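Sequence in, structure out. Go.
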Amino acid sequence: MSRPARARIDLDALRHNYQLARSTHGGRALAVLKADAYGHGALACASALAPLADGLAVAFSDEAVALRAGGIRAPILVLEGVFAPAELSLAHEQQLSLVLHHEEQLRMLEASQLPLRSIDVWLKVDSGMRRAGFPLASVASAHARAKACSAVRNTVLMTHFARADEPGSDATARQIDDFDRATTHLQGERSLANSAAILAWPQARRDWARPGILLYGADPLAARQHGLRPVMTLESEIFATRELQAGEGLGYGHAFVAERAMRIGLVAMGYADGYPRAAPSGTPVAVDGRPSRLAGRVSMDMLPVDITDLPEARIRSRVELWGANVDINAVASAAGTIAYELLCNVKRVKKSYLA
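Output:
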């Protein structure tokens, strides 16, 4: 019998979440599949979404080429754009659209020898995040230069929000207003809304949405009442049990000390699989569908759970680390991180796909 640690990927839930994002936003939606589809398997997710998605998005060219090699023919946007002039020819050959977000990329495009009207570009505007994009004062000039490039077929204007997951903050409203003022007379479609903005900022809904984390069922907002379905269930099994007396320590450093007589289940899952080492005792898990908690430090290959009040729990009992019964956001919060990181860190475990 092989090690029971696994990640089950529900592709029907993925499709559901995409359709929810698209219908909420209106217009069209690019499904963001960067970082191996946030740890879910980019090719499998692209194959599931391609028949219904308006397009896909990845971080850099290699991710796009891998999808093309796997038979994906859907439109693909490369969010980081190019790093060297040779990538422009690659983008043309692979029929990729590119984000332009700084001067060097625009100069490479201007100097390129690509065929006439052969590539679409998305011009990124820094409306206030201050990370990437053309400054508001230079957007009109950058837009004119991009449109003047003989290789450019269409130009989409886009921006990215710094605090869209904070509905109580006025930062997103300011970014929207600043974007609109800087681009009001410029031709082209618009794309403003990321996952949080799709759900929380109707005024950000334009021609294109860019759902990322919400595709995978991790709600980016604290309310978490949007009908998203978790796509990944990270699970394993208890492979051994231990009895502790009150006052006995468990694991490295005896960081966990039993407050009473306890029964502990050892689970075949650890930080080498992507479960966060920083998750403290008390982090929620589910054992055979019933609520439980971590009870001690996460090790490289195993972790302890409290089964004191679950007398039916035994060796080979199923343990869900996150999924339908355990909100990944609760795990992330306990570990002092975000769901994005947890999903992207999943490795070594077997993945299985439910169509």
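Check: The mean pLDDT is 97. The longest strand covers residues 232-244.
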